[in-house]
Amino acid sequence: QVQLVESGGGLVQAGGSLRLSCTASGIIFRLALMGWYRQAPGRQRELVADIIGEGKTRYAESVKGRFTISRDSGKNTVYLEMDSLKPGDTAVYYCNGATSADSLAARNYWGQGIQVTVSS
After folding, report:
1. How far apart are CA 60 and CA 83, in angstroms?
2. In 3-45, beta strands by DSSP E
3. Cα distances (Å, whole numbers) of residue 22 to 34, 81, 113
4. How far lies 20's CA from each of 27, 69, 105, 114, in Å?
């Protein structure tokens, strides 16, 4: 079975940094898309950032200039470097991977989520 496992979360002070990592196992093909979503209490799950194909990236407006998504070439591993963290970034962060970025039939996988808490 396919598993996505996140690591790197925790508690940090506002203005600090964290680096999240996610590695997919149980799949031999490169995932076409990998990304990060987050869900804060009382909020809908939202896209934070994703990376597609040769490196096309997309970011939520609220994190542009502060977060950077990257992945190892040819590997199902994705990272999220989070700098200048704000209390509003507090959420459970979920790793996401998909077998296609433009097919409705794409398989979609999710990690179990990891807590990021930013104190003021």
Report:
1. 14
2. 3-7, 10-13, 18-25, 33-39
3. 9, 12, 10
4. 21, 9, 28, 9
C-alpha radius of gyration, the chain, whole number? 14
Residue 107 has pLDDT above 80, yes or no: yes
Query: E strand or H helix at 91, and its extent?
Result: strand 91-98
Structure tokens at 68: 């950077």
Dist CA 3 CA 97 (whole Å):
10
In sequence order, what are the residues at sequence separation of 6 or more whose Cβ sits closer than 8 angstroms to the Cβ of residue 98? 31, 32, 33, 34, 106, 107, 108, 109
Per residue in 79-98, pLDDT (tens digit) is 999 999 999 999 999 999 99
